[in-house]
Amino acid sequence: MRRIRANAIAILTVAWILGTFYYLWQDNKPHASPSAAKAGAGRVEIHREDRTIPLIVTHVPHVEIEGQLVGSFDEKAYLSGKQLKPGDDPYRDHAFNLQESDRLGSERAIRDTRHYRCASISFDHDLPPTSIIITFHNEARSTLLRTIKSVLMRSPPSLIQEIILVDDFSSDPEDCQLLTQIPKVRCLRNGRREGLIRSRVRGANAASASILTFLDSHCEVNADWLQPMIQRVKEDHTRVVSPIIDVISLDNFAYLAASADLRGGFDWSLHFKWEQIPIEQKMARNDPTQPIRTPVIAGGIFVMDKNWFNHLGQYDTHMDIWGGENFELSFRVWMCGGSLEILPCSRVGHVFRKRHPYDFPEGNALTYIKNTRRAAEVWMDEYKQYYYAARPSAQGKAFGSIADRLALRRKLNCNSFRWYLENVYPELRIPEQETVYTLLRQGGLCLETHGTESLALAECKGSGLNRPQSQKWTLVEPQIRQQDLCLAITAFTQGAKVKMEPCNIKEARQKWKPKGPALQHIVSGLCLDSQPSSGPVVVMQCHPQLASQSWEPQPIT
Ligand code: LR7
Ligand code: MN
């Protein structure tokens, strides 16, 4: 009888232990929850955890007594120096709910969103310290201060060499200046608006630590966010690492866990997006603490060795204000011998917004085009044609000289964009791959350009992909292209010459369509014609059966 009771107790105990483990495991599994919400203008998919009792509460292990942490800094005075006036729209100046941010205070506890296994990972005792670089333009005082205090509270003090604020010509210099009363905080103020790219370079040049950590000015770092990143960079200085970026609600400032199996991706218009890691990689991941390789980083929050940052050419400082620099840096890192990864055991919250709360002196769209065009022109080789096809408005827009960046690419002896696509981002679908380059053949001859002004039939040269550029065409209806140049008629009349000019999707003179074997100019209805042979190529009344109007587009393989 006693034996039976002892057995029953043993069985119950085992069941209880197993049950507890199952519960813990469930809680930390990423949920494919139907309530997955879109946040930040569709930029991130998050999985809401509805539990109210967090299993691991963010302790504040490194916090010292208040005075030591912030020194002589008078937080109340700083925050009350700028306050929302009754009746003001709390979203107006920052595109998030300022009232809610101000109400929160600078030191709130947040849920530890890591997988529970992260808490037991250990790090080297001699990790090198880092310089934190935060650039900002008219950031709200409460979000900026919370960013700084979260860093001081949740990082081992020995790892924080300094926090460099780069004030990108905000209206009030005191937003930055007053914060230098906090120990370790330095403030550099730009004498004019530079944009985040040049501001970060300024911050990096001023940094005294050997490792750089970049943060946006409205973040909250989570428990032990820094050690995993510094550890990875210490082990291999060519790694550029980012945390999982959690979501801070722009409405109520709730801190929400982001999904742990996303990586950075993009489409051909160079629009950043979060995407699921490929299924084979997902299946092979049996350890949720392992780094995730990512084709691109979101851009704002990453850790990089300072010598490696300098060696690779910092940033393209001809990019203005905002945008595109994350692609340029990501392509450069991968193609020139480094790697990019997201570390699931490092978590940083960020306030995702739906609009920019600041102005772009040259306009938002033009600036994005200029910056991404620079990235495409320098790094994407022949694949830049897909960027132009996906973003036709980029054609013909000014982007300045890229000579320095091309020289840098040569000096660093970087891989091709084709290598990047094959080895880093094979999942990026290449549009109409097989029919990309074509010859425009007539009999045994090929249509060839001589500069932009003249076109003629000439002997077909080279073979395969080694054909000369002057004979390689891409047919992206309605355009007939050679890189950024498009075939255009010079007048809407019979016998008008054709020439090459910068592509512009709105330009009627550049629009063509096939008509049997002929190529017809849409508006005039005239057809591309090689008569008189050896003379200039013109447009004539369509007679597709004529040999001089018969062009057989022939894919080059
Ligand atoms: O003129 C400016 N000067 C600045 O110093 C404009 C902006 N900034 C500062 C700004 O105050 C902020 O601290 O630059 C930082 C980034 O600007 P945001 O917060 O308006 O941009 P974002 O969060 O929408 O932008 C993401 O993409 C940018 C592309 O240029 C940058 O790489 C941002 O750092 C990047 N943010 C992140 O990666 C955080 C995660 C978001 C995502 C996805
Ligand atoms: Mn941001």
TrEMBL record:
Catalytic activity: L-threonyl-[protein] + UDP-N-acetyl-alpha-D-galactosamine = a 3-O-[N-acetyl-alpha-D-galactosaminyl]-L-threonyl-[protein] + UDP + H(+); L-seryl-[protein] + UDP-N-acetyl-alpha-D-galactosamine = a 3-O-[N-acetyl-alpha-D-galactosaminyl]-L-seryl-[protein] + UDP + H(+)
Protein name: Polypeptide N-acetylgalactosaminyltransferase
Required cofactor(s): Mn(2+)
SMART domains: RICIN
Residue ranges of domain Ricin B lectin in the record: 434-554
Gene name tied to this protein: GALNT16
Main location: Golgi
Location in the cell: Golgi apparatus membrane
Protein's GO biological process: protein O-linked glycosylation
EC number: 2.4.1.-
Family affiliation: Belongs to the glycosyltransferase 2 family. GalNAc-T subfamily.
Superkingdom of this protein's organism: Eukaryota
Any single Pfam family the record assigns to this protein: Ricin_B_lectin
Entry keyword set: Disulfide bond, Glycosyltransferase, Golgi apparatus, Lectin, Manganese, Membrane, Metal-binding, Signal-anchor, Transferase, Transmembrane, Transmembrane helix
Membrane-spanning intervals of the chain: 7-25
GO cellular-component term (any): Golgi membrane
Membrane topology: Single-pass type II membrane protein
GO terms assigned for molecular function: carbohydrate binding; metal ion binding; polypeptide N-acetylgalactosaminyltransferase activity
Pathway, per record: Protein modification; protein glycosylation
